[in-house]
Amino acid sequence: MRHLSAIFLIVLLVILPSCKFFKGKGLFGRKADTMAVWQARQDSTRVVDSIRKVQDRLMAIENAKIDSARKANDERLAWESKQKYNIIVGSFITPEYAKGLAEVYRKKGYDTKILKMEGSRFELVSAEAHESFRKAAARLKEFQYSIEVDAWMYIKK
Predict the structure, then answer these.
(1) What total of structural domains would you count in the chain?
(2) Which of 40, 86, 125, 145 has most Cβ atoms within 10 angstroms of its Cβ?
(3) With helix as H, strand as E and coil as C, how does the chain read?
(4) What is the pLDDT of residues 36-73, one digit of tens each?
(5) Percent of the chain residues topping a pLDDT of 90
C-alpha cells in the first residue's frame, strides 16, 4: 500500500504540471505571470535609475560651470581692484563716444576699460592699468611718446 501511494503521488506530480489548466491559469501560470511582472518592474526601475544618474551628472556639470564662472568673475574683480593706476586716452560725457574710442584701442590690442570718474559725469577710456605707480608712470611716458600725446594717468581709489 505504501508503494502504491508513493507511485500515485509521483504520477500526480508528473502529470499536473503538464496540464493546460495549471500552465495557463492555474498555480504554475500565475507564477510565470508574477515573474513577468516582477521582471518588468525591475526593468523600469533600472531605466528610472539610469535617467536619475544622467540628471545628476548634468546637474553636477551645470553647477561646475556656475562655480567656474563665479570664480573667474571674482578673480577678475580682485585683479581690477588692484589695478589702481590707469592710463587714460580719452574722457567723454557721451557714453557712445567712450565706447567707440575703447573699441578703437581694443582693436589695437589694448585691454581697454571704461571707468566712471568720481564726482563727475565723465567716462574715462583706460588703455592700460597697473598696480604700481612707477610702472604706470614709465608706461605713460612711452604711451605719450609713441601712441597718444594727450594720454594721462588717473588714480582710482
Answers:
(1) 2
(2) 125
(3) CHHHHHHHHHHHHHHHHHCHHHHHCCHHHHHHHHHHHHHHHHHHHHHHHHHHHHHHHHHHHHHHHHHHHHHHHHHHHHHHHHCCEEEEEEEECCHHHHHHHHHHHHHCCCCCEEEECCCCCCEEEEEEEECCHHHHHHHHHHHHHHCCCCCEEEECC
(4) 888 888 888 888 888 999 999 999 999 999 998 888 88
(5) 43
